[in-house]
Amino acid sequence: VAALNASAAIACWDETGVTCMALSVLGMEVVAGGAALSVESSSSSYVSVSALDESRAVVCYVMSSQGLCRVLTMAGDGGLSAGCAQSFASSSASWSTVAALDNSSALVCYQYGSYSYCRKMSVSAGFSGSSMYLNTAYTNYLSVSAFDSTSAVVCYEDDGGYDYVECAVVSTPSSSSTSVSRGTQVSVNSVSSAYVSVSALDATTAAVCFRVMSSPYTGQCAHLVRSGTTLTASASSAFTSSYASYVSVAALDVQTMAVCYASGSSYGVSVCQRLFKGGVGISEGNVGYLTVYPSSTSYQSVARLAADMALACYRTTSQGVQCAPIYSFPPSPP
Fold this sequence. Notes:
- By secondary structure, this protein is mostly beta strands.
- It contains no helices and 31 strands.
- The protein has strands at 2-5, 8-15, 17-26, 29-32, 37-40, 44-51, 56-63, 66-74, 80-82, 86-89, 93-100, 105-112, 115-122, 132-135, 139-148, 151-158, 164-171, 181-182, 186-187, 193-200, 205-212, 218-227, 230-233, 237-243, 245-251, 256-263, 268-278, 281-283, 289-306, 309-316, 321-326.
- It is globular and about 50 Å long.
């Protein structure tokens, strides 16, 4: 899900093909802004969406191993239209993720064959620049978030590095340039991990969250600090005492983030909570736990609507994809 402003968002998901829908947040209710749009009718996966401005977003996905992106435009009545497909990989693509850099460009990162890459997309011209090596090993759970109009943070699980979480700055010389380069990779932890999600808090800091793949399989986050093209990672801190799957994090402001996850080994209750950046690390502080959906869920996605508001979307096992606004978090576990 991608928030366009404090009361509008676009959610996209794979359902045979790729489906997207504009959403309006009205108080504690989420309503469809218009009819659902079938962006891609063929079987697709690895769907990712990011807002360009208050009426447009870019959605990227993999269809028959080909990596594709389209610009979505929301009309005044809430209806969506999709632009022509732009290809970032002709074959062997997976784990695609996208982050808008500004209203005219976006950064797409993805697995291709045995390596992972990033490419810059122009809204008007598509992918004219060459791809850049991100990691020279198979890479899972890629996640990208923009620091500013010329740089972003990319995090992932490195299959060539014992399945540890790694992050790097990816930058472009200018907003008009088509080339991208990668800074030095930093290891966030030293334990096998999955379900990686990253969100920039401001132009120099970010939070990366994930699940560790050893007992008790806790959800953890670490604070990232950027200096130029170099990242420094704090020690990670657990935000759960047991299983957390399908982790998604979104910065609310420079100190606060919302993290949502399925509270189970693979499926579970959809739970969101608030985390605070303390000093150089992530501390639980006054953490609030909120059960968003009480039955079995899998994929989660959370987006900032405002400093005290977030929109959580998730896939249920019986009711399809659902979304719920979160306006506040209880001050302590129920």
